[in-house]
Amino acid sequence: MFNLLKSRLKKTLVALLLVALFLGMSTPSSYAGLPSGNAITDGKALLRYALPIDNKPVRQLQGSLEDISNQLRANKRWSAIASDLKKASRVIDAPDKLLASIPEADQSKAKIIIEQIKTDIESLQQTAETKDKEKTLIQRAHALNLVGELEQMMVKGFPYEIPTEYSNLPQLKGRATVAIKTNKGDLTVVVDGYSAPVTSGNFVDLVKRGFYDGLEFTRSEESYVLQTGDPAGKEVGFIDPKTKQYRAIPFEVLVEGDKKPTYGTTLEEAGRYTDMPVLPFSSFGAMALARPERDVNGGSSQFFFFLFEPELTPAGRNLLDGRYAIFGYLTEGRDVLDALKAGDKIESAKVIDGLENLVEPTA
After folding, report:
1. Which of 80, 94, 339, 354 could link 176 by a cystine bridge, Cβ 3.0 to 4.6 Å?
2. 133-153 and 107-130 helices cross at what angle (nearest 10)?
3. Domain residues of the chain, as ranges?
4. What is the pLDDT of residues 220-232, one digit of tens each?
5. What is the DSSP string of 132-161?
6. Mean pLDDT, rounded, for 328-337
7. pLDDT tens across 174-195, in order?
8. What is the CB neighbour count within 10 angstroms for residue 76?
9. pLDDT at position 93 over 80
10. What letter does residue 277 receive in the DSSP assignment?
């Protein structure tokens, strides 16, 4: 194990090398996209932006509310927050533009959500006048959860065809929420089948089987990842009881602007060095499939949480984007995830929402 060096540049490079080594499993073996500007470090926000929808007003609404946290971090710029809230208010005061992307069957529910968001924005405006930071953050989070519900209603089916060569693997055509109970506390994660249907489908299928129950975490203090999914015995992945074969999952990444994921090759191998994935490594608790160092299509059951450290792995400037397949983000339980160490265990994992989106293999 390398020692961290004092130089910030060297620390960054060493940390990234350690991540690559640690994730190598050395045991035998049309989207709107993210907004420009500072990298987003909130998993919930990344999931909202990753939804395959095309409604500019709702993205403007979301962006205005998301920006509030940026202003609070920048020494509480209350005048900028007031401006954000005015922009959000203008959008919500024109509900027909939001409703235009909602199916007729969901219009009544959407109208109720829009009214709730309007109420939240009015409350936020009052709170911002008092310059109450904590209350502002709480109210903003509630409003954004409602915006996320509205955006989810705008999704019009699954947006592309998955290559038939992967029909022998589980697929998640939508999203699923998984509750993970550990000996240190509870985690909640959302896996995104819109961006990574095969990788997400594999994970949800294994959760459904109870595969992860009782498995230990491994963690290297200097590599900034927490990994699990290695079953007891000589195997390093899932052996399908039907085929008696190791279930290998192809590398899968959806790039901003692409209509469907790239399979079987990293973005580096494809020469797409500057292209950004829809699901980037910019959030604490990003979930990605681990794999053998030299086999991009050799991942199976092992996955890792990325313990994002801004000083060591600057958002949007790390070497992991496009090299490992992200399939979801932690949404609840940050303190628990940060406390987990090698030897801690998953007591149970359960799909609590979205199981209906899991498509079983057809071959």
Report:
1. 354
2. 160
3. 8-32+159-359, 53-153
4. 666 689 999 999 8
5. -HHHHHHHHHHHHHHHHHHHHHT--S--SP
6. 97
7. 999 999 999 999 999 999 999 9
8. 13
9. yes
10. B
Any residues with CB less than 8 A from the CB of 43 and at least 6 apart, and which? 190, 283, 284, 285, 286, 329, 330, 331
The answer to whether residues 49 and 33 touch, using CB atoms and an 8 Å cutoff, is: yes
**CATH number for the domain formed by residue range(s) 8-32+159-359:** 2.40.100.10
pLDDT at 320: 86
Q: Looking at residue 104, what DSSP letter applies?
A: G
Looking up tokens 């279930």 gives: 247
Q: What DSSP string runs through 286-345?
A: EEEE---TT-TT-B-S-EEEE---TTTS-TT-SS-BTTBEEEEEEEE-HHHHHH--TT-B
Q: Which residues touch 350 (CB under 8 Å, ≥6 apart)? A: 178, 179, 207
Q: DSSP string covering 22-83, please?
A: HTT--S------PPSSSPP--HHHHHHHTS----HHHHHHHHHHHHHHHHHHTT--HHHHHH
For residue 113, give both structure tokens: 């959500």
pTM of the model: 0.89
For the chain, the farthest-separated pair of C-alpha atoms sits apart, in whole angstroms, at 64
pLDDT value at residue 319: 75
Decide which of 3.40.50.2300, 1.20.120.290, 3.30.565.10, 3.40.630.30 is the CATH code for 53-153: 1.20.120.290
Best CA proximity match to 80, nearest among 147, 143, 131: 131
**Residue 296 reports pLDDT greater than 70:** yes
Q: State the Cα–Cα distance between residues 176 and 205, nearest whole angstrom.
A: 11
Written as one letter, the residue type at 340 is: L
Confidence of residue 359 (pLDDT cuts 50, 70, 90): very high
Helix pair 78-92, 107-130: axis angle to 10 deg: 160
Q: Looking at the predicted structure, is the pLDDT value of residue 28 above 90?
A: no
**Full DSSP string of 205-247:** HHHHHTTTTTPBPEEETTTTEEEE---SSS-SS-B-TTT-SB-
Do 198 and 249 contact (CB within 8 A), yes or no? yes
